[in-house]
């Protein structure tokens, strides 16, 4: 297959194009964009506008609420492959049991590709790695045999560095010397004001991983059972909010309701929450502003207002209803014959 | 923001971040960034936007999109 030299759309651009009716279908593997991406209602609108959304995941995650087709994924125990970590270390993963979902992820992808009319005949992930090595200069000398012999290797693994490269850029960078660029400080366009006087910053907690699709399904919830809004005592007192109260968290993008935790861990004027739980969906509130170069969402700066509340936000109620409806499995009727 | 407004916003944002380079380097860098990292559909939309009255593009962004229109077939 010839690769297109043109860049493709980034996720936010895909969703915009879907809302405009120009982007029709998406296959999502191991990613839960409904919960992880900013402005959840826009993400939902984009997914809902597509003609075919396929989610291939270990769990019926939140994005699966909008899927037309769900393909069950396989765990690291059910497939051969590699994981490459942030240290550039390529490590083998070895199957210890047959996939409960019948197919390892790569097999599901191959079946899908062949259903689209391609003629893929891989019989083992080692062959896929050989192809990666042919196409990727920094993986040129990677193979399962080499990995099995070495245990693990850090890319670049090349003819010149067949054992891998523990330390990169010794003596020079790939481009030669480093390039320094002067740039101005450009403040965000997300501004606080009378309606939204506080700044929301979102983040993570150690016991939950990203949107929590995996960790929420474990006993880790004992440490972090819900997302709470951390608010400074001064800001809480001004709003009549007491520790443990339900509060509405509202921005220009949307609104959610969650429990307040009054704490001086946050500065006056700043509130903080995590985005691990779909019942809260902190990203209903976050803005669509992003950085100029990569469109990485500006999760750390959203102008918000906080007020005591005794009810869920409309999005939470709608989403809860939709989630229940989409996850309901009708019993199959026995076919007569 | 609708898609068109977002694209204008993004183009202006890129131009603002290269402003310190001074012209014409900032205009070239902006055009180059859009050519390399925007998909063809987005590029085509922003080029069409140039012809809209009150297109909303900053002077540097508009100059970059004009350069892009001229050499559209050859992203560097």
What does this molecule look like?
The complex is a heterodimer of chains A (337) and B (76). Chain A is an alpha/beta fold and 337 residues long. Chain A contains 8 helices and 12 strands. Chain A has a 6-stranded mixed barrel with strand order 7-11-8-10-9-12. Chain A has a 3-stranded parallel sheet with strand order 1-2-3, with no helix packed on it. Chain A has a 3-stranded antiparallel sheet with strand order 4-5-6, with helices on one face. By secondary structure, chain B is mainly α. In chain B, 67% of the residues lie in helices and 0% in strands. Chain B contains 4 helices and no strands. In chain B, helix 1 (3-18) packs across helix 2 and helix 2 (25-37) crosses helix 4. The longest helix of chain B has 16 residues, at 3-18. The radius of gyration of chain B is 11 Å and the shape is globular. The model of chain B has no long low-confidence stretch (mean pLDDT 91). Classes of the chains: A alpha/beta (337), B mainly alpha (76). At the A-B interface, helix 1 of A face helix 1, helix 2 and helix 3 of B.
Quick structural gist:
The complex is a heterodimer of chains A (337) and B (76). Chain A is built from 8 helices and 12 strands.
Q: Kindly estimate the percentage of residues of chain A that lie in beta strands according to DSSP.
A: 15-25%
Radius of gyration of chain A: 24 Å
Poorly predicted runs of 5 or more residues of chain A: none
- What profile does the largest beta sheet of chain A have? 6 strands, mixed, barrel
How many separate helices of chain A? Answer: 8
Largest sheet of chain B: none
How are the SSEs ordered, and which strands pair?
The complex is a heterodimer of chains A (337) and B (76).
Chain A: H1 11-19, E1 25-29, H2 33-36, H3 40-49, E2 52-57, E3 69-72, E4 81-84, E5 89-93, H4 105-115, H5 125-135, H6 144-150, E6 152-154, E7 198-203, E8 228-231, H7 233-238, E9 246-251, E10 255-262, E11 270-274, E12 302-308, H8 314-327
Parallel strand pairs in A: 1-2, 2-3, 7-11, 8-10
Antiparallel strand pairs in A: 4-5, 5-6, 7-12, 8-11, 9-10, 9-12
Helix pairs in contact in A: 1-3
Chain B: H1 3-18, H2 25-37, H3 40-49, H4 59-70
